[in-house]
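Shift notes (night). Ran WD40 repeat domain-containing protein while the centrifuge was going.
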Amino acid sequence: MGLKSNWDWEVGQKTVVESLSPMQGHGWQEEPYVSDDGETLAAIVQVDEGEFSIRTNDTVWENTFEKIWFPRFSPDGRLTALCQQDMEWALAVDGELVGETTDYVWQTKFSKDGSVIATMYKSMEQYAVAINGEPWEELYENVNQYTITSDGAHSAGVAQVVSLDQADVEGFKKGVYSVVVDGKTWEEKFLNVWTPTFDAEGKRVAAQVRTSPYDYTIAVDGKPWSTVYNQVWEPVFHPTDGSVAAPARQAGKWGVAKDGQMLWEPRYLQCLELQYSADGSKLWAVVATSYGQFTACCNNAPWGETWDVAYDLVVSPDGKRAGLLVNKDNADFRIVIDGTAWQGVYDMAWPVVFSDDSKNVAAMVEKGGRYKILVNGKPFERDFDHAWPPIFSEDGTKILIRAIENNSYVRIVADVAQF
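Came back to this:
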């Protein structure tokens, strides 16, 4: 698939798959997935009793498997799935198994360019991360919350590194969890560890840690901050100076701590989804200014309007703008851009997408079972039976719409100016 500049950006509509009904001889067909460039649709199909494969447009993988799940397209356009053969599991790429089969694999992740594909890996009740089908040399009793760097060169996860007998509370209090980076464990152990996070260069790792039954802090490369808090959330690295920031709770209020010192004073009822702009000049978060009043916040300055629920914060490439999803009682979903809600209330909404130049914003919404694509708050000329999130061209002048209508899968390129 490659760079977006290499995709077909000619304005117009193309019917990629004429009929999405099961192909002749297939017992059933599961939900479809589509590639980023919109050129390929994939779905798991039953080709015979106890035999499954994947349909891609109007063809089917040659190989069949006992079970298949989690089909996903990599950024470079390859189609992956998790497949069982002879009662063991492996990652399959374009229909071919990668690496040796094992007890189980799950949670596929990709490097930014798609050249590296990672999964969780289980063998003989031991766990690891597998990179392109190859697990870490050492396996552990428990591995979870794994992550990989954007180039796929490094991986990390939370691992249980000390065995415990049932109800061994005192053993647990001594610390049984740590972070494993590329198969090597931090020396320090903690009661709990969450969300290991790499810096931009993939050389350092920070994570939430629990140092006692009541104390939480951030550990960086295995070394916890000297300051502890009532609670913390996922840390982030500054993109240029290497410092680490995280939401932190003190005396019942939330703020942001940086390298163990308070950067934003604790004054919020909640603070989460922390993220820096690309140049590090702006630090964004979702905050609750009082009970049940959530909004976005930039450099400790909240937007003026608040909502019952706010989440899925997306910061524009230039760091100056942001979008949120908001709702009330898990209904009446709305899209908020730069502190102002777009017109329209929906049954569901998906995270917003900014153009590369940060000037335009698109989103997908659903109401009454019909899917709409919005650009700058304005809907495309028609709605669809189903759709996938829109994608801007590199210059931001066109939008790619991938949708199902009248049992066909269509690929539409529209001018942003027509919205």
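The helical segments are 169-173. The mean pLDDT is 97.
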